[in-house]
Amino acid sequence: MAGASSHSQEVRPAILDEVNPVDIPRQACVDNNRSFNWITEKICGIIEEKTPTWWWVCFIIACATASFTFIGLGYLVVTGVGVWGLANPVNWGWAIVNFVFWIGIGHAGTLISAILCLLRQKWRTSINRAAEAMTIFAVVCAGLFPVFHVGRVWFALYPGYLFPFPNANGIWPNFRSALLWDVFAVSTYGTVSVLFWYIGLIPDFATVRDRAKTKFRKIAYGIVAMGWRGSNRHWSNYEMLYLILAGLSTPLVLSVHTIVSFDFAISLVPGWHTTIFPPYFVAGAIFSGFGMVITLMLPLRAIYGLQDLITQYHIDCMTKIILATGTMVGYAYGMEFFIAAYGANDFEIFAFVNRAFGNYAWAYWIMISCNVISPQFFWFKSIRENTTLVWVISLFVNVGMWFERFVITVTSLSRDFLPSSWGYYSPTVVDIFTYLGTFGLFSVLFLLFLRFVPLMAMAEIKAVTPQADPHHAHTHKAGSGDYVNN
Amino acid sequence: MSAERDASLPNPTKWLLIGAVGLIISFIGMFVDPRMASFCYLIGMIFTTSITIGMLFLVMIHHIFDAYWSTVIRRQAENFLAALPWMAVLFIPLFLITYLYKQDTLWIWMDLDHELHGHGTVGTDPLYLKKTWWLSETFFWIRAVVCFLAWIYFARTFRRNSFSQDEDGSAEHTYSSRKHAAGGLIVVALTWSMAGFDWIMSLEYHWFSTMFGVWFFANSMRAALAVLVLVAAFLVAKGPLKGIFNTKHLHDLSTLCFAFTVFWAYISFSQYFLIWNGNIPEETFWYNFREEGMWYGVSMFLIFGHFLFPFLFMLQFPLKTKYPAMVFMACWILFMQLFDLIFNILPSLKVHGHTAQLFHQPLGFLWLAASVLGGIGVLLWAYWTSYYKVKIIPIRDPRIGECLNHNH
User: Which of A22, A211, A325, A346 is deepest in the core (most CB within 10 A)?
Assistant: First the structure.
């Protein structure tokens, strides 16, 4: 190696002859060496087959459940916001809890499609489509709450309870309020997520169009495929656009939950005003999002026989992300307690002691068990390989993250600075049914997605199979001297 | 078998001598101007420790992700880990000065008789009395020892696994590293946060911020990545990594530098913004000190120099793949990194009740330069000593083949 600097670039460094990697094979993203055709048949088959009975059963149940939300919201519009359980001192109750819960769920989609794309994580290809769909539907559910909490919902957009138009009295929404920033952040996020999802869908829509047997289907999918021919130029434009959107979405993922955290953290309420909130909320959002991805994908994997596309490797990756983000959330819980004690502020100390041992202690310990303790089971391989257990833990994650928002919002408000105004918040029946209904709304949208849109990004999955690699045919033996030089 | 010694590569002993000179000047400073020189020494010591801890994080992140592109440069990070025990040694003078000279030289809460400007003494300060459970001197030093022991344990484990694999080519070493990385990330995240609270935040013991540990992490990652870029560029230019470390690797490393630039800005901004917006005196005073005199300029310089400029610079793809551009950027980041530490540490030094101003004490620059040079000298001495003992790349690593063919 000595004096190599004086040699020309073609000189091969001597150390390369010693290179002899240990064999720890990478896990494949597609099991059983499935062909391109198998992948197309499998995924297109889902939307081309006759609508299965279970789908109709689920769809009807989902519609019925979704009606709760609309009845609840209709009742609210007709009667007034008093139908919700909000009352002094807890003026932020389930509405904001549900809003933050659904927004958080939405984060996994963009994380998988944008951040994992930038990190070149190949395993994202099997789950990104469904996760992005989930993002959009979750944002829809989330958006309902801020829009309807204004009561006279026709004022929400114009003239300006939410959007910054001066309203009838010439009053503008306060630009210094994080709630207004939420409007910008969430609407931008929703828009970019839809664009990103749609761009990824174009090549797959073209595949469905080309396979369509009826004229109507051909035209419908033809329109949404936007004349995609799969030419080299199409692909290179597509790849560039996809990368740019991934780059744009990445700060958006972080910004949305950062601003959601600002809703709380810019106030002076003990338990809300703490500097770690932004990254802690983002970690929590990704945590809850992955929880929901697993909750949805594992049943679909079993129903459609997708074991070769959502492999144990995918489940391992997702559970490990849940473990990592759950532990980060645990770190934040710990930091809040530590700094409350270290900061020696009586109100802050009280807020946290009250959280853990006060009137809402039950909610706090549900949160800790679900968010910090339950993911720790994912340290064990045997549990990660047991799909039933993984699914059950993913449910715990969903529950835990709802309770996290509940604990933050309600415990701090119910014990504010003035003991004479302390109270105990309970949701009304309208609160409960409106929230339950959003699961129906989410399911209706997701079921429609299952019927009309390819569940997985076929084109992208094909690109990560071994046969997509031009060197696939000849074996890549270590130390055979094929390492590329500069 | 070890890498051959090349005349064009630095001699470790030279760096030890440079480090020794720096340290001796620092120690002289502690006699001439004990408080200023000790603060500068603390800055220099944390600066170099943050580089090594950043390397430790990088190695662990590499293993936990089963990453491939970083395999080619991981060995250099492991070489830097050799410096961790010496960082612990560099910490000892801080212990000595508080014992031999005055307990309140650095952390004023260590001296119960320390006069608080116009508010009695530390011992009568109600806030201090509520914090004694954490801010106890013995506990403080025990925590520092625990932190260093934990870091040295993990550093040694990763080094041993990696070097042994070169010899025996056993996959077990990789599995062991992965397991240690999983546990190590939790342990090091907690201990490094604790170190941040103790060493920097408790300088101003009235102040608190839950974000501080995350800031300290972001800070160490930026420093380590910048040093890795410099090392890679140096080794490519001098020959040893030529034809091994390619521009794709450089691009990935630069992208990570870029990502952590944004992360650092995100964390620093969030901390500032939430405190500014909350506007309660028990938090804002910390930033108010940092708007006095020269510190206002330093704050502004951090915003533009530590975020905006690197951000716009590294946003450009061509610059991220060119050695001269990235060498410049890495030097810039390291320089700004030092400023960030100065900004966080030095205003806690109070002279007659006012925030210390570096420009008012020209000798301060000497102590600062000497302590940074001292730390860097020791760091590079440990690095080069380790460098000559091991292979330039982990030749039996399971991902080294993929990494060398990295051509994405």
Answer: A325
Task: State both tokens at A56.
Answer: 């109709």
Number of domains comprising chain A = 1
* CA dist., res. B327 & res. B254, Å (int): 10
Structural contact between residues A328 and A283, judged by C-beta atoms closer than 8 angstroms: yes
Question: Does A427 map to a domain?
Answer: yes
Tally the residues of chain B.
408
Closest Cα in chain B to A268? B278
Is the pLDDT at B190 greater than 80? The verdict is yes
CB B26 within 8 A of CB B37: yes
Q: Does A19 touch chain B (CB under 8 A)?
A: yes
Which tens digits make up the pLDDT trace of B25-40? Answer: 999 999 998 889 999 9
Q: Between chains, do A18 and B170 touch, taking CB under 8 Å as contact?
A: no
**Is A486's Cβ below 8 Å from some Cβ in B?**
yes
Cα of first residue to Cα of last residue in chain B, in angstroms, is 32
Residues B207-220 have a mean pLDDT of 95
The DSSP 8-state label assigned to residue A469 in this structure reads: S
What is the span of the domain harbouring residue A409? 37-465
Asked if the structure places residue A481 within a domain, the reply is no
Q: Which residues of chain B make contact with A4, given a CB cutoff of 8 A?
A: 239-240, 242-243
Torsion angle of the four alpha carbons A37, A40, A45, A46, in this order, in degrees rounded to the nearest 10: 150
pLDDT at B4 over 70: no
- pLDDT at site A472: 66
Mean pLDDT of chain B: 92
**Cβ–Cβ of A15/B193 closer than 8 Å?**
no
For residues A92 and A401, the answer to whether their CB atoms sit within 8 Å is no
Helix (H, G, I), strand (E, B) or coil at B26: helix
Instruction: Identify the band that residue B405 occupies on the pLDDT scale cut at 50, 70 and 90.
Output: confident
The reported pLDDT for the residue numbered A178 is 86
Q: Does the CB of A13 have a partner CB in chain B at under 8 Å?
A: yes
Nearest CA-CA distance, residue A286 and chain B, Å: 16
Please list the helix, strand and coil fractions of chain B in percent, rounded to the nearest 5, in that order.
75, 0, 20
Q: Do the beta carbons of residue B269 and residue B363 sit within 8 Å?
A: no
Reported as a single tens digit per residue, the pLDDT across A96-111 is 999 999 999 988 778 7
List, in order, residues 6 or more apart from A445 with CB less than 8 Å away.
A133, A136, A137, A140
> Which residues in chain A land under pLDDT 70?
1-10, 156-173, 472-486
Decide if B270 and A279 are in contact by the 8 Å CB cutoff: yes
Rounded Cα distance, B245 and B255, in Å: 15
| pLDDT digit string, tens, across residues B334-372 | 999 999 999 999 999 988 778 888 767 788 899 999 999
* Confidence category of residue B1, pLDDT binned at 50, 70, 90: very low
Question: Does a structural domain hold residue A268?
Answer: yes
Q: How far apart are CA B223 and CA B177, in angstroms?
A: 23
CA B306 centroid distance within chain: 15
Q: pLDDT tens for residues B293-336?
A: 889 999 999 999 999 999 999 999 999 999 999 999 999 999 99
**Centroid of chain to Cα A431:** 24
pLDDT at A163: 67
Residue recorded with tokens 């610079």: B313
* Cα–Cα distance for residue pair A391/A384, rounded to 1 Å: 10
Instruction: Tell me whether residue A267 is in a domain.
Output: yes
Q: How far A126 CA lies from chain B's nearest CA (Å)?
A: 19
The single-letter code of the amino acid at A185 is A
The DSSP line for A372-418 is IIGGGGGGSHHHHT-HHHHHHHHHHHHHHHHHHHHIIIIIHHHT-S-
User: Which of A128, A122, A119, A231 lies closest to A466, judged by CA?
Assistant: A122
**Any CB–CB contact under 8 A between A417 and chain B?**
no
